[in-house]
Specification:
The protein has 288 residues and is of the alpha+beta class. The chain contains twelve helices and 14 strands. Helices cover 33% and strands 27% of the residues. The strands form four sheets. The protein has a five-stranded antiparallel β-sheet, with helices on both faces. A four-stranded antiparallel β-sheet has the order 11-12-13-14. Strands 1-3-2 form a three-stranded parallel β-sheet, covered by helices on one side. The protein binds flavin-adenine dinucleotide. The site of flavin-adenine dinucleotide has 30 residues, from strand 2, helix 2, helix 7 and strand 10.
């Protein structure tokens, strides 16, 4: 039950939503409600004004534009998992979205909500980092494009200002011979990622790795790029020993979380194993 009183607004445009956000310091955007409503029921979020952006239908679109796939903030996990453009070019994102919770959660929860909430165990931040996506936000001062690597700041922390709205996420379509994959070790009850790894690999004509990007979620206070593993992979032929050696570096320099679900040692091992699986599948797909 939600016990505190609040005002509900449902603007039809982004401009009106931005104005509504400015009316009180205790305002919250409502998207799919699958993170915010549970927090309100627990009394952990008590907004004075709830700004429901569900009527801004343009924010649900998934489109191709200037060599990028642009995913509206209100695209649900389910619509992302089912989109043919995303399946063809951003497979790791499709797989991450398909792995979120259950059908009900996937049908209501949105990518914008997931990235704004920034739960350290959320799935979509991993491919967002690995594809070097840009998060487009609009606030009272206008529009800002935030590169994914500057966006995630830690547990429930992002570069988003309180009165800014995530409007879309722009994923550059990987060029040339490339492949991607998402490998996850899911919490058995909630489905959240205890560890999730998204890998994006680009190959040269001779089969050596030209580009490698690995985004990791669930393992640490926030999602991160496994840069030591990426460096270890580039220039190799991505054979089993090269992939193993790179995956072994995927947790390098990062403090692993330790909680009732998994110790830091176990999480480190999960990162290694899932980095190997994600890279292997990405390479296989790049080879075609
Ligand atoms: P909301 O709950 O509406 O909002 C969440 C927060 O983001 C709020 O603070 C809100 O103000 C803010 N916000 C929302 N949209 C915007 C926007 N466009 N701009 C700025 N701020 C915004 N997630 C996973 O990743 N993996 C899982 O396996 C998983 N399992 C789940 C299982 C259950 C049972 C439940 C209830 C949730 C689970 N989730 C999981 C979380 C789910 O994916 C949420 O839908 C998602 O994290 C938040 O999206 P939402 O649209 O529901 O956002």
């Amino acid at each position: 039950m939600i016990t505190h009183p609040f005002t509900y607004e449902a603007p039809a445009t982004i401009d009106d939503a931005v104005k509504a956000l400015g009316r009180s310091r205790e305002t919250k955007i409502l998207a799919g409600g699958h993170s915010l409503i549970p927090l309100m029921k627990l009394g952990l979020a008590e907004p004075e004004v709830l700004v429901d952006i569900g009527r801004i239908t343009a924010l649900r679109d998934i489109r191709s534009e200037d060599g990028a796939i642009v995913v509206g903030a209100l695209a649900t996990h389910r619509s992302i998992a089912d989109d043919s453009k995303i399946a063809a070019t951003l497979r790791a994102l499709a797989e991450a979205a398909a792995s979120v919770g259950d059908l009900q959660v996937r049908s209501r929860g949105t990518i914008g909500g997931s990235l704004a909430h920034a739960d350290p165990a959320a799935d979509e931040p991993a491919p967002t980092l690995a594809f070097d996506a840009t998060i487009r936000v609009i606030g009272p001062k206008g529009r800002r494009d935030i590169p994914a690597r500057e966006y995630f700041k830690g547990t429930f922390e992002t570069a988003l200002a309180p009165n800014e709205i995530v409007v879309e996420i722009r994923f550059p379509a990987p060029a040339g011979r490339s492949g991607s994959a998402y490998a996850k070790f899911a919490h058995p009850a909630s489905g959240f990622a205890i560890v999730g790894v998204a890998a994006v690999v680009g190959l040269k004509a001779d089969g050596t790795v030209e580009r490698a990007a690995i985004g990791v979620t669930g393992a640490a206070a926030g999602p991160f790029r496994a840069t030591a593993a990426e460096r270890a992979l580039v220039g190799t032929r991505a054979d089993a020993s090269a992939v193993d050696a790179a995956a072994a570096k995927a947790a390098d320099g990062v403090t692993m979380l330790s909680d009732l679900t998994a110790s830091s040692e176990f999480r480190k091992q999960l990162v290694t194993v899932h980095a190997r699986r994600a890279v292997e599948r990405a390479v296989e797909r790049a080879r075609g």
